[in-house]
Amino acid sequence: METANYDVVIIGGAFAGAVTGILIKRKNPNARVLIIEKNAEFDRKVGESTTEVSSCFMTRILGIANYLGHEQLAKQGLRMWFCNSPEQRFDDCVEIGPRYSARVQTFQVDRAKLDSHLLDLAVKGGCDLWRPAKVTRVELDGANGQTVNAIVDLAQSSVAAGVSPANQTDAAGAAATTATTVRARWLVDATGRATLLARKLGVLRPNEEHPINSVWARFTGVKDWDSYDWREKARDYMDACRTARSWATNHLMGHGWWCWIIPLRGGDVSAGIVYDNRIFKLPEGANLAERLHAHLVRHPVGREIFGDARAIEGDVHALSMLPYQSETVCGDGWAMVGDAAGFIDPLYSPGLDFCSYTGNYVADFVARSIAGENVSEAVREYRDQYPVMYRAWFETLYKDKYFYMGDAELMSAALLLDVASYYFGLVIPAYMDPEKAFLELPFRGTPGRIAASIIKFYNQRLVRLAKRRLAAGEFGKRNAGWRELYDGFVPDFRVTKLLRKGLWRWWKAELTNLRLMFASSPATPAKEAASIAPAEA
């Protein structure tokens, strides 16, 4: 058995693992870093959209703005569509989103391509790479070092440092593998949903308060949102918006569910549904692709877009119980980053935000440790603050949100308030001083607790308002005939304009709630069922 020694072994070479390797080598060029990746090729992930925070990290910290501009698509904000009947005209549906092109650069990314590019950068930056290689055993021994056993495919492996070339083929000349032991001072788990260390240590916990599932696929034959055909059919609808709707992350919204529609370079379109199984069940069908397509075309806007579309064969995926968390994310000599530490919800695309913060934070204290610095305080801070960040992020933005998703008035208030809060809390600090911002996990200290309490309060109020509307048969009744097209969010004081707009919508929803409280006739079950179309049917 071959043996290799490193300062750091990173298990997982996708975004979080590659970024951690890149930053460790930048902060400490003498560090010996090995990345072990099990897949010969990366697959696509749930959703392919970046936020203002993750885009800031990639352009300012990683410095890959040129790559993103040439190889990925510029994103034109986030747009939501609501209806109150499957038979509704598409241009009568409520539209909420930016009127103009985005003020802050974000991207629609093909994650397989992005992950491959970052892993290439890690190797060019001095990291060794074993790929494909399967980790078979991990032993943690603190300051004495961590041990990883792996099976390396020598014929395909990009770099096989410490492995003898004589072992690359067997007696018949066929491709061979070798069992290899790696010892390192630090082990970083970047295995994503496989959560290798969390499972090994018994600290993986599903988030049962948030029972969401997802089905997604790539489609061809999707209609262009900005086509001449649409202009001829609905000129007022086309002229209302000054930017291309096609390049936005478009969302179809319903009671207990939402669908994303994301363009990819080359013409394919990523589309998927995320739903709370307490509220919504995906319609039955012959297979997942048919079931997803059938649901998409039940929404009037989806019907226009996906009427002639078809799912790409073999590129349909599903996940149940999406959210989870590791109770402990680091210890002496090991740490988790990205999805290996936890995941909440793809709405608002926070996954790469988590990868950015955790990868940078861990890379910093690992690089300093290898240089001989005592980093026990930084490790303790990461261990204590990560669960605070996870819990606060969940309770402020996602807990029970699916109860009001299908109501345009309630969700528009939430969108404006959520994004304004995100700008004040994370986006503005990131652009003011990215090096400092990405070394502090969100919701930190007293200011973080206060912000979390405020956002959590209005989110839970909107949940209560939605439940009253449901009981009164009023849910989604005003999902027709209006649109909210705002100027766009910018990382400075002008974001207060949209914050005020969100507060005004919330206040109007509270006035409606007062009226319903004093209404004399409760809704019949038939009325309530009609108010949440087109969900379960």
Written overview of the protein:
The protein is α/β, with parallel strands linked by helices and about 525 residues long. The chain folds into three domains: about 1-50 and about 115-205 and about 325-385, FAD/NAD(P)-binding domain (3-Layer(bba) Sandwich); about 75-105 and about 210-320, 2-Layer Sandwich (D-Amino Acid Oxidase, Chain A, domain 2); about 400-530, no CATH class. It has helices at about 15-25, 50-60, 65-70, 110-125, 195-200, 230-235, 235-240, 290-295, 300-305, 350-370, 375-395, 410-430, 435, 445-470, 495-515, 525-530; strands at about 1-10, 35, 75, 80, 95-100, 105-110, 130, 135-140, 145-155, 175-190, 205, 210-220, 250-255, 255-265, 270-275, 310-320, 325, 330, 335, 340-345, 485. The strands form four sheets. Strands 1, 2, 7, 8, 9, 10, 18 and 19 form an eight-stranded mixed sheet that branches. The chain has an eight-stranded mixed sheet with strand order 16-12-15-14-13-4-5-21, covered by helices on one side. It has a three-stranded antiparallel sheet with strand order 11-17-20. Helix 1 (about 15-25) links the parallel strand 1 and strand 2 (about 35). The longest helix has 27 residues, at about 445-470. It is globular, with a radius of gyration of 24 Å. The model is unreliable at about 160-175 and about 525-535 (pLDDT under 50).
